[in-house]
């Protein structure tokens, strides 16, 4: 049995950062849809901001990035000085910010990128536990105390996407199978037209036993739009990062690239 006292600070805040080449791949999927207002719900030291800079994100775009840790938020903020697009780094709990906006009021984004924190529900402070539960309830999703912090992050991110918006996230591979993520899988199927999971053979994050996958989803433009199904793309190595992202998605869904 694991006890909180034995866990590292990195593990308790879910602080495993995304390699830049992977972040750029995800950012390209959102860029290709012409996104101008992008959300990064837990930006750490800002690798996704760097990624957008390196793929020459449009000048009139804005990336709103949340980070709970003061020092990491400051690192992200300090990156932005030379970017051609605007950034807005907010040092606060993303879920608490998102909760009052889930009913359709307030900001909506046309793209979401990120790698949300992997923190067991029982390791979250009580206030965060309550907020996580309220996110499930606000979206009509079944809640369980077996959940993990990344699940309400993805739920809230999908809810904050505009119709037709794209989400690209690095997530624990348990997304595919664990029982506690069932309500997220159902929510994805209800809300999204395209859902693709890129499933690597290797473990990308040193120091974790948990494998990671890439989730790419495109929200329906209207509720009656048909879902194109779920595409699963197993990959070996990192050569897929050089592929055209839209082709990857089409290949996984067994459709033609548009
Ligand atoms: C897995 S790391 C990913 C960081 C960055 N997105 C990346 O891909 O490298 C998750 C980040 O979430 C932050 N975090 C944890 N709880 C949070 C919360 N409630 N709101 C916002 N950020 C949070 C952690 O401090 C950590 O930096």
Ligand inventory reads: S-adenosylmethionine
The H-and-E topology, N to C, reads as: HHEHEHEHEHHEHEEEH
Strand content: 15-25%
Largest sheet: 8 strands, mixed
Secondary structure: number of strands = 8
Radius of gyration: 17 Å
Strand order of the largest sheet: 3-2-1-4-5-7-6-8
- Overall form: globular
Question: What does this entry look like structurally?
Answer:
- The chain has 258 residues and is α/β, with parallel strands linked by helices.
- Helix content is 31%, strand content 21%.
- It is built from 9 helices and 8 strands.
- Strands 3-2-1-4-5-7-6-8 form an 8-stranded mixed beta sheet, sandwiched between helices.
- β2 (62-66), α4 and β3 (86-90) form a beta-alpha-beta unit.
- α2 crosses α3 (47-54).
- The longest helix is centred in the middle third of the chain and has 13 residues, at 126-138.
- The model has no long low-confidence stretch (mean pLDDT 91).
